[in-house]
Amino acid sequence: MPSVRPYRVEDAADLARICLATADNGGDATGQLDDDDILPELFVLPYVTRHPDLAFILCSDDDRPIGYIVGTDDTSAFEAWFGAEWWPRNAQRWPMPASFTTRTAGMIAYGYSRGHASAAEFAKFPAELHIDLLPEGQGAGWGRVLIGHLAAALRERGVAGVRAGVSKENPGALAFYPRVGFENIASDERSQTFGLPLD
């Protein structure tokens, strides 16, 4: 039976693999960008680097990671760190594109655009999460369990609420968040943001 445990540094490669395998609106995004490392560098590895204590791993019977939840307790501070310290490490590998006509260019440009979130924007829901499960970890309530682990850790820090953004092309995620207690807090043409009060 699967189980949940805290993140370990040696899990990083497995989390990058899971991120990539679920990044196409829940499906496998392998090969969709010019470099498969871009998506994990945006959406999972910076979180476990800055907040390893806010990362929880869903493991199979043999302790193989099959899902995760990662997050930050302060999105504004995290984005500032991402823009100033994390993404600039990749400047030589992925320079700012001259045009944004490809998905790869768009994702790289997104990395460069981060770092300017205001604290006021996140006053009610200052924390942020990313959760991904491989198919073998889905459909048995483990997503709810992972949310519970992170929510408990954030409550211990006195965090008022946590948010999660999803693509409107991901019906599974759009259905998941309301089912586990999140409310719709923002929406645009492409994405939906959900929030869970913690106080």
Can you describe what's shown?
By secondary structure, the protein is α+β, with helices and mostly antiparallel strands. The protein has one domain (3-158): Gcn5-related N-acetyltransferase (GNAT) (Aminopeptidase). The chain has seven helices and seven strands. It has a seven-stranded mixed β-sheet with strand order 1-2-3-4-5-7-6, with helices on both faces. A hairpin with a 3-residue loop joins strand 6 (183-187) and strand 7 (191-197). The longest helix has 15 residues, at 142-156. The mean pLDDT is 94.
Describe what is shown at a glance:
The protein has 199 residues and is α+β, with helices and mostly antiparallel strands.
Main features:
7 helices; Aminopeptidase; alpha+beta; 199 residues; seven-stranded mixed beta sheet; 35% helix
Please give the structural blueprint.
Blueprint: E1 3-6, H1 12-22, H2 38-43, H3 45-50, E2 56-59, E3 65-72, H4 75-86, H5 103-113, E4 127-133, H6 142-156, E5 161-167, H7 171-179, E6 183-187, E7 191-197
As residue ranges, the low-confidence spans are none
Q: Main beta sheet, described?
A: 7 strands, mixed
Structural class: alpha+beta
How would you spell out the order of helices and strands?
A: EHHHEEHHEHEHEE
Q: In which order are the strands of the major sheet placed?
A: 1-2-3-4-5-7-6
